Amino acid sequence: MESKKSYTEMMKAAAMTRKKAAERSVMEIYIDMVLHESILMTQKTKLLTDIDAALDTKDKGLFMKLTKELNELNVSYG
Question: How many domains does the chain have?
Answer without folding.
Answer: 1
